[in-house]
Amino acid sequence: MEQVREAELDVAALGSALLRKLWLLIVLALLAAIVTYVALGFVRPLYTADTRILIEDRESPLTKPRDATGNPSSTDYDASAIASQVEVLRSREIASAVIDKLDLTHRPEFDPNARPSALKSFLISIGIGKNPAESSVRDRVMDTYYSRLSVYPVNTSRVLAAEFEGSNPQLAADVVNAIADEFVSQQQKSKQDATVAATQWLQQEIESLRGKVQQAEQKVSDYRASHGLFDVGTQNGDLQTQQLNDLNAELARAKADHAQAESRAQLIRSVLSGGGSLDSAEEVLNSPLIQRLREREVALRGQIADLSTTLLPAHPQMRSLNSQLQGLERQIRQEAQKILQSMEAASRISAAREQSAQATLNQAKAASASSDDQSIELRALEREAAAQRDLLQTLLGRYREAVARTDTTYLPADARIISRAVAPQKPSFPKKTMMSILAAVVMLLLAGAILLLREFTSGRAFRYVDFAPAPALTAAPEPAVTPSRELVAVTPAAPTLDDRPGTGELADVLAEDGLRTVVFAGADGSERVGEIAVASARLAALRQLRIILVDVGLHPQSGLGSADQPGLGDLLSGEVAFGDVIHRNEAAGIDVMPMGAMQKDPPMQRLSLVVGALSHSYDRVIVLADTLADWPNSHIKADLVVLVCNPELDMDRRLDLHEKALELGARNALIVRYTSRDGARESASAAA
């Protein structure tokens, strides 16, 4: 009878095959390493020379333009600026200059396609590959140049690294040094060109501005002349403004003189009218005539005082002297009266001057008010002329600086070579040791893969799960026990069945990763599904797995406790709690949930919740069904369905069961078939 066989990957067999051929794998790896090392000895070595260039602002503060001094933006180099400098180093302008400087077009190393090999010539003749004759020598040299050049910024710094590969180490160093020198030279040349262009532009702008300044100043002069707004050359503005200022000053002086003259006249007037002493009036004391009269008065008073000691007041001489004294006093008062009259005249003159200055100022104010609009227009013209003059002065200063920088040879580039290339001593390609080790590893992996492929194609990489029926237990050394529902309490029978062929393989399947829910079902309901499930679960539990068996069939399965114990049916109907339906099978080391008292129409919508809760608490949830039709696939999603069938079941029926299990939603399906007699062993067949 043709058998359906379940092929399961046998990792141990694969490992054994690799160990048996380990010597061959090592020999092949060593041969690959040796051949690679020898072959690389015939490869032309390439040497890599590198140089380092620092991008920085090298302008001296002494020669830096005044506008650029202290400007932080002139020395900032962000990532985009550094990337731009990288592209400048790779530019065709620098490449052409280096090729011409070192005459690379006449070096065969840079034009390898000039003399193609016989194989390449044949490929070109049949249209495969590019014909070197279609491109110029310079283009081919340029392609080789760029294929060997590498330019990149060093980490996040402002240092650029330029590397060049070549079969000649000295030539590689010369090329990369020439690239760096040309880069710095072009930096200087670009500054020189920019300065010359700026000088020419400034010269044109200055010539244009000179004409504009002359026109603006001419407009100011014409406007002044046409409106009588003459410039007095002072900070006070035009002529009218200066006149107003002068009149204000004159009026202030007239008022001061009038007030002073009036106060002096009032003082003398009060002295004369009040009979006070004339000595308090400064103008009286300063009069020469009064001073002489005072001197004569003092002399007479002295003479009277001298004679009064010997003569009486009625003496004629005393009367004559007193009469002279009174005449002097009258004369002094008359002179004071004259001074008062002169002071009053001066006061009247000052008042007249004040009135005249006030009238003149009022006239000037009226004239100035009428010319305000003209002054505003004049100031606007003056501002325009001043702005043009300032701009001209600024451009003249920059022009002088630009001319000075153009005439000198001091134009520092914004780059500096900090490390020049030297001829490398060791080749950068090929790395014989590293590439030989890599070839050995690749050969080892490739040979191992071929060996494993042979094991797969020959079938030796798979193992097969077998089962023997319970009647064969009579041949076991332990007492034979007829399987029953009370397998939980019978300890000798479980180990005996565990020792049957195929049970361990099925336990290995249950222990594989990726399985959470497994369904055991019979082909027609007569198979001992419970016995096989308990036996395989017991062996799987020995691998530190927490396993629970749940009975959902129409008939109670053996090995899941007594019939009067509460189970799944009681839990679905809500009569008992969750913990009351889980029982421990100490002999097997697993938990079981018997069928219990199942109602006619139990609420199956709760079944998915029950299985989901169990899958979170246990490593494996094994569901037992009498037949495949008893599996509630809409509520229980199975990772694996194990179909137990009698040995008399034909091949077509087994294949139909396998396809039906997959159609019902199983991810994988496994068919287990057992024999009727001990020793008449058949292999279990599986499909996935």
Automatic annotation (TrEMBL):
Cellular component, GO annotation: plasma membrane
Membrane topology: Multi-pass membrane protein
Membrane-crossing residue ranges in chain numbering: 22-43, 434-453
GO terms of molecular function: protein tyrosine kinase activity
Domain Tyrosine-protein kinase G-rich span(s) in chain numbering: 378-455
Coiled coil: 199-264, 318-345
InterPro entries: Bact_polysacc_biosynth/exp (IPR050445), GNVR (IPR032807), LPS_length_determ_N (IPR003856), P-loop_NTPase (IPR027417)
Gene3D superfamilies: P-loop containing nucleotide triphosphate hydrolases
Keyword Ligase: no
Location(s) in or outside the cell: Cell membrane
Domain Polysaccharide chain length determinant N-terminal, first and last residues per copy: 8-102
Record SUPFAM superfamilies: P-loop containing nucleoside triphosphate hydrolases
PANTHER family cross-referenced by the UniProt entry: FERRIC ENTEROBACTIN TRANSPORT PROTEIN FEPE, TYROSINE-PROTEIN KINASE
Name the UniProt record assigns to this protein: Exopolysaccharide transport protein family
Naturally occurring in which organism (per UniProt): Faunimonas pinastri
Lineage per the UniProt record: Bacteria, Pseudomonadati, Pseudomonadota, Alphaproteobacteria, Hyphomicrobiales
